[in-house]
Structures are given as structure tokens and as C-alpha cells.
Design goal:
The protein is α/β, with parallel strands linked by helices. The protein has helices at about 5-10, 25, 30-45, 60-70, 130-140, 160-165, and strands at about 15, 20, 55, 75-80, 90-95, 105-110, 120-125, 145-155, 170-180, 185-190. It has six helices and ten strands; from the N terminus they run αββααβαββββαβαββ.
Length: about 190
């Protein structure tokens, strides 16, 4: 079994509505040694792809993206969530529907930090319906830059995001893939 899957079995908590709580090691308290191992696994997958920038979305992707930036030797950028309507034009903007909150919000990134020549690896903690990942891909395409692929920590394969984005040609490397989560608090990994 993979490292992250073992940790999910040990410390993850299955919650109602298909939500996995991983606050104790992934997105509240952060096990940075584990993050380093995850970043090395993404490097095995994307290390030959001349990545020049890591891109994530605030807040819970930031820790993973920083450690990935260390391993890939490039800057990490996080797209910001904003409620401000009229922001000035030096940025790319898209809309994302939040899986955890059920709301739609604007996400922005400065034009200075994604350039047309960039080769971008997107990093995030979860892939569920795929809205966050799709929004990040949209920002990169507005910049005229290249998406090399996506490094995801936990993919919930029973939600449609991963399949839809792979069908569109996006290379997605998920380090733990959950096939099912049950009401009794148990879960199953995909093969
Ligand atoms: P998506 O946009 O793919 O539907 O959802 C991705 C985002 O929702 C991730 O950035 C993550 O923050 C959050 N998310 C989705 N599913 C879960 C989950 O089961 N647990 C937690 N903690 N966050 C989740």
C-alpha cells in the first residue's frame, strides 16, 4: 500500500457527505516530512517535464505546493480566493465552486507570476468534482502557459472530477485514490 493511503487509514476520518477529514496531517496540522515524501513521488512522475512553476489554490494546497517547489527547484504560486468585485486588470480571474462550502467564488492570480513561457505543475490536496483543478487550468491557459499536469494528494474516485479531466487530456497523478467511503466510517482504495 502507498504511504499516503497508510496514513489515511491510520489518521483520516470519514465524514458525512463524502468528506474525508485529514486535519491532523494534511490540511490543518501539516506533517511536513510526509509532504516531502509526497513531493518526491510527484517528482518521480513529473521531474523530467521541465516544470518552472508550481500552482495551487489557497488555503489547503499551499503547504504541499511549497514543499513541491523545494523538490522541483522552482517557485510556488497560490491562486487567491477573493470576494472583491472590481479588482484591477493585472490579473487572471476565474470562478470555482467550492466542494466543501457549496459556494462559487472568484480566484485570481497576478499576470506577473504566470508567464506564457511557464510550464506549470498544479498541486492540490484533494480532487473531488474537479472544479478547483479546472479553475487552475483555466488561469494557466489565460496566461498562455502550459499545464504539465496535476499532482493530487487524495483523489476521491467516486466523484467525477478525475475522470472528466483525464478525458480532456490532463495528466493527473494522485497519490491516494479512494474508491468508496462508507457510513460506518470505513473506506476502500482503488487498485
Ligand atoms: P473539487 O473542486 O475537486 O470538487 O474539490 C477540491 C477542493 O475541495 C480541494 O481543494 C479541497 O480543499 C476540498 N475538498 C474536496 N473534497 C474534500 C474532502 O473530502 N476533504 C477535505 N478536507 N477537503 C476536500
Amino acid at each position: 500500500m502507498r504511504l499516503l493511503e497508510e496514513r489515511i487509514l491510520k489518521d483520516g476520518k470519514v465524514r458525512a457527505g463524502g468528506v474525508l477529514k485529514v486535519d491532523s496531517f494534511l490540511n490543518h496540522q501539516m506533517d511536513v516530512n510526509l509532504f516531502m515524501e509526497l513531493a518526491r513521488q510527484w517528482y518521480e512522475a513529473f521531474g523530467a517535464d521541465n516544470v518552472t512553476k508550481i500552482l495551487t489554490i489557497e488555503a489547503s494546497g499551499i503547504g504541499l505546493a511549497c514543499v513541491a517547489g523545494l523538490v522541483f527547484g522552482c517557485p510556488a504560486v497560490f491562486a487567491k480566493k477573493t470576494k472583491t468585485k472590481n479588482i484591477d486588470g493585472d490579473l487572471y480571474k476565474t470562478q470555482v465552486e467550492s466542494f466543501t462550502h457549496g459556494t462559487v467564488y472568484d480566484v485570481i492570480v497576478s499576470r506577473d507570476y504566470i508567464r506564457p513561457e511557464d510550464r506549470v505543475l498544479i498541486i492540490d490536496d484533494f480532487l473531488a468534482n474537479g472544479a478547483a483543478l479546472e479553475g487552475l487550468c483555466d488561469l494557466v491557459s489565460q496566461a498562455g502557459a502550459t499545464v504539465v499536469g496535476a499532482g493530487i494528494a487524495v483523489e476521491k474516485c467516486f466523484q467525477p472530477g478525475g475522470e472528466r479531466l483525464r478525458k480532456k487530456g490532463l495528466r493527473v497523478e494522485s497519490l491516494a485514490r479512494i474508491k468508496a467511503m462508507h457510513d460506518d466510517g470505513t473506506l476502500e482504495f482503488a487498485d
